[in-house]
Amino acid sequence: MGGVITIGKLARYAGVSIKAVRVYHAKGLLPEPERDASGYRRYTAEHAVELIKIRTLAEAGVPLSRIKDLGDVRDVLADVDRELSARIRRLRETQKRLRRLADGPVDLLPAEVGRHLDTLPSLGFGPRWVAMERDLWILLFATHPDLADRFFRDQADALTDPALRQLYLDADRVHDLPPGDPAVDDLAVRIVDATRRRYGSGPLPGADAPSEIPALMQDALNASSPAWRRLDRLIRARLAAGT
């Protein structure tokens, strides 16, 4: 193509600022033309075409780092179109979730777990225990749904056994006791005995947990009650010692 143009005219033709042209030069997106005898850059129509391509891709959201290797503009635009479509789908899903949040109660747990939590008061558990379990299940199902499902089914099964259910109820009741109360020691012995009868010498549920989440959950429980903190230490020590 013949003819030369100044940087100002080039910017106007392409619909960008002179500063943008210089940025594209600095990033290696647009090759710099040779200067004339007066020291001015002289651009050609090829530069204008390249600049329009760069502007189009930049406006479409293509990172400048990707524009550097333009290749076939149609291929790049097709990639961007697919990315935008995926982004739009994600935004629509987010919008739906926000609308559900605004419309009323949110189901953060599987329906089966929600029904289970609703039955706990009738089994003798207090509001604090129910609220604690709800928060723990929400966290575990959000981070490790497979592990949470195993934990949930194990606990639901345990609560069908009157003797095991009593251990859970006793754990709820020692929450506010002084940590040195003999009831804490007695409960630790009974929990360890029941654990060995239930699981034998095999690994305990959660021993293969893929992250620190279960341990962090236990730490949070312990922090809420000095008695629970001591109970947890006694149980771990007796299980480790085999006594």
Helical/strand content category: mainly alpha
**Biggest β-sheet description:** none
Q: CA-to-CA gap between the ends?
A: 91 Å
Strand content: under 5%
* Shape verdict: elongated
- The rounded Rg comes to 33 Å
What is the residue-averaged pLDDT? Answer: 82
The total of beta strands comes to 0
Helix content: 55-70%
Low-confidence stretches: none
How many domains? The number is 3
Count of alpha and pi helical runs: 12
Q: Name the helix and strand elements from N-terminus to C-terminus, one letter apiece.
A: HHHHHHHHHHHH
Give the oligomer, counting copies of the same chain as homo and different chains as hetero. Answer: single chain
Pfam family, one: MerR_1
Organism: Amycolatopsis melonis
Keywords: DNA-binding
Protein name: MerR family transcriptional regulator
Q: Could you characterize the architecture of this molecule?
A:
This protein has 243 residues and is mainly alpha-helical. The protein has helices spanning 7-14, 18-26, 45-59, 64-67, 73-103, 111-119, 127-143, 145-158, 162-173, 182-199, 213-224, 226-241. The longest helix has 31 residues, at 73-103. The radius of gyration is 33 Å and the shape is elongated. The N and C termini lie far apart (91 Å).
Summarize this structure briefly.
With about 240 residues, the protein is mainly α.
